[in-house]
Design brief:
With about 700 residues, this protein is α/β, with parallel strands linked by helices. About 30% of the residues lie in helices and about 20% in strands.
């Protein structure tokens, strides 16, 4: 697989061209005109203009309509739609249509269908019914893309390419014979020799040693715990196999339309694809966001995902390609967004770097599996709350065109690595309760509440510009990545690492000496033994350094999920366990390394204590919020323009008004009025403030 990506390949130039084409923030949604009679199309374009739509994703599920059999292509209807949109001044992010193959492909080539670990086949009747390892699927997909790109290369509506759709959403891995052959090829390229693979997979355990490549299969259904290194490599392979499908289509698009930007939409944050490996191949990254309106903390998890998306390309703006105007259709109970919540969450994405706000979908479907998924134009029509909110949001976004292209500056970075995530959550570990996203949010939520901007980066990233780097649970780490973090601290940085980090290398082999492996020197400690806690079990922790937990705790807090026997070398204790078998042992420690400081937590402090600890470390590191002293439930992010202009996006996630302290001298660019502090922000309210350079 070509891993060069688009560094130095005009990716930023293409993304800038898309911004210029749109003239500001992109606004619109998935448009599926093939679901409707042709007489509806002109009405759609008229209503799009009324709603402020300037961009649509088109053709995502149109393969069967465009190519009804292997030799026939029907472009007439799509020509008419593209012309209508161009005449209406609406740009098109044209999909390659390959996310859902037509039924004839499975009938003629059943080997293209995905297979589960137990050998059962996933058949047509839904979507994503293909294995990415199938050369037959790829050949048919690239043939379609060649025809599509050639036909619309110079069409005035074309603004961007939308490759596939939600890769890995339903089928993130396939275990059939086609996949076994491809997996073996991937392993040959990775390891070179069967001996090297045996060493990496620790196959001397349980008599798993391989004598030939053909003996290797995907990690199919097995009697008990499968080989953990094999499973992690299969996750790597599966992410790469889907990426190869993307790259095969991208190669065609780049050759036929070299100036048109390319993207694909990542699904709501999960462990399927290694997004760090994918993002370098896109001109602009895109995301589908579906927080649950019934979850009071959903906006915090959404903010984390938005910060990750922004960080994937070094802080560059990204595109929100899908969200729901109201309710989705796939939860057990599908609650709609409350009045004002769609606007609030849309502005949250913009505040955290989105240069487009789009929806699934434009017009609600009359039939099919997603007919009860909300749309910009609901079943009940335009005289609805939903359409009124859609229209008002379009007006607001159009009033701030100079927001597009601005960037967030974060003083804190949080480290996330997908292979480590895969390793952390495997079975036969000290605890099955550890979950990467819970660990991420336990460390991120206090930063969010304090208004401290945070990037989300790979452990190999250049981090010297950050005041603080946070490592929630980095179970697997290489010597090289550990040296990167140690060098950051040695040069004056502040590093916070939590338990069960640095345990294994990238082959899931335990580091010599145990945890925290190659992080031991920078942390100044060793872990002698893990003592995981039961689901509802807690352990007391008390300060060893007076005041370290902050006020309001009386020097005592509680930890959950985990504890471990820590033996200090150069580090000094900040807190000790005050109950259980580890009473008197270090629960938190600090080590001065070079000109910087590294901290370690051997348990997960309760949320209030974690917030206090992170606030103290942020103060010591000089990681300050852009707008301090926000009331509880309020959020603020600042986007910076190249000329020094700042845009503060302030949000109220509460069901009641709050008063927000703001610096003087700001103007609301949506209507030109002066913003006089302190400002009363309505329930679920949004404030945008421009501050001059």
């Amino acid at each position: 697989m070509n891993d060069r990506g688009d560094r130095g390949d005009r990716g930023e130039e293409r993304a800038a061209a898309l911004r210029a084409r749109l003239g500001g923030i992109g606004y619109g949604g998935d448009y599926n005109p093939e679901q409707w009679p042709e007489e509806v199309w002109a009405e759609d374009v008229r209503l799009m203009a009324e709603a402020g739509v300037n961009l649509v994703s088109l053709g995502i599920f149109s393969w069967a309509r465009v190519q009804p059999d292997p030799e026939t292509f029907d472009w007439g209807w799509l020509d008419r739609v593209m012309d209508l949109l161009a005449d209406g001044g609406i740009a098109v992010c044209l999909a390659t249509m390959t996310a859902s193959p037509p039924p004839w492909l499975a009938r003629l080539h059943p080997e293209t269908l995905p297979v589960r670990p137990d050998g059962s086949v996933l058949w047509p009747g839904a979507r994503q019914h293909f294995t990415p390892s199938s050369e037959v699927y790829r050949d048919h997909a690239t043939r379609l893309v060649e025809r599509l790109a050639t036909r619309y290369a110079r069409h005035p509506a074309l603004a961007a390419w939308h490759v596939g759709n939600e890769y890995g959403c339903h089928v993130s891995a396939s275990y059939g014979e086609v996949d076994a052959v491809a997996f073996r090829g991937w392993l040959r390229r990775r390891y070179g020799t069967i001996d090297a693979l045996n060493e990496a997979w620790s196959t001397t355990f349980w008599s798993q040693r391989y004598a030939a490549w053909d003996e290797i299969t995907p990690p199919r259904q097995a009697p008990t715990f499968p080989n953990p290194a094999q499973r992690i490599d299969f996750r790597r392979f599966s992410s790469d196999a889907l990426l190869e499908c993307f790259l095969a289509e991208k190669e065609v698009l780049r050759r036929v339309t070299p100036d048109v930007p390319v993207t694909t939409n990542f699904v709501p944050l999960r462990d399927t694809l290694d997004l760090h490996a994918w993002a370098r191949h896109e001109d602009v990254v895109s995301y589908d966001s579906y927080p649950d309106p019934a979850d009071p903390g959903a906006h915090v998890a959404a903010a984390f995902a938005f910060d990750l998306l922004r960080s994937l390309k070094g802080g560059a703006p990204w595109l929100l390609l899908e969200q729901a105007p109201a309710a989705v259709n796939w939860r057990r109970v599908n609650r709609p967004k409350a009045p004002g919540q769609m606007r609030l969450w849309s502005w949250q994405a913009v505040g955290r770097g989105a240069d487009a706000v789009m929806f699934f979908q434009w017009r609600a479907s009359a039939g099919g599996a997603e007919k009860y998924h909300s749309a910009m134009v609901p079943h009940a029509g335009t005289g609805t709350r939903t359409f009124a909110e859609v229209r008002e949001l379009g007006r607001e976004l159009a009033a701030v065109p100079d927001l597009a292209g601005t960037r967030v500056r974060a003083p804190v970075a949080l480290v996330l690595d997908w292979p480590s995530w895969w390793g952390l959550e495997q079975d036969s570990h000290p605890s099955a309760l550890l979950r990467q996203q819970e660990a991420n949010l336990a460390h991120y939520a206090p930063l969010f509440a304090a208004g401290v901007a945070c990037d989300v980066v790979h452990p190999s990233a250049e981090v010297s510009g950050y005041r603080l780097v946070v490592v929630p649970n980095l179970y697997m780490i290489t010597e090289r990545d550990a040296a990167n973090l140690a060098g950051y601290v040695r040069g004056g940085g502040h590093l916070l690492v939590s338990f069960f980090s640095g345990v294994a290398d990238d082959r899931d082999r335990v580091h010599p000496g145990g945890a925290p492996g190659p992080l031991a020197d920078v942390l100044g400690l060793r872990v002698a033994e893990f003592w995981p806690l039961a689901k509802d079990e807690h352990v007391e922790i008390e300060e060893a350094e007076p005041g370290w937990l902050g006020s309001g705790f009386g020097g005592v807090a509680h930890g959950s999920l985990w504890s471990e026997e820590v033996r200090l070398d150069a580090a000094s204790p900040l807190a000790t366990f005050a109950s259980g078998v580890l009473a008197g042992r270090p629960a938190a420690a600090r080590n001065r390394h070079g000109t910087g400081i590294a901290y370690y937590l051997a348990t997960r402090p309760d949320p209030a204590a974690m917030a206090s600890i992170l606030a103290r470390i942020c103060r010591e590191a000089g990681a300050a919020p852009d707008l301090p002293d926000l009331p509880e439930g309020a959020e603020s992010v600042v986007r910076h323009a190249a000329d020094g202009t700042r845009f503060a996006i302030v949000l109220n996630h509460n069901d009641k008004p709050v008063t927000v302290p703001l610096p003087p001298g700001g103007v609301d660019p949506r209507d030109g009025t002066d913003v006089v502090p302190p400002y009363r922000l309505d329930a679920r309210g949004v404030l945008v403030v421009r501050y001059p350079a």
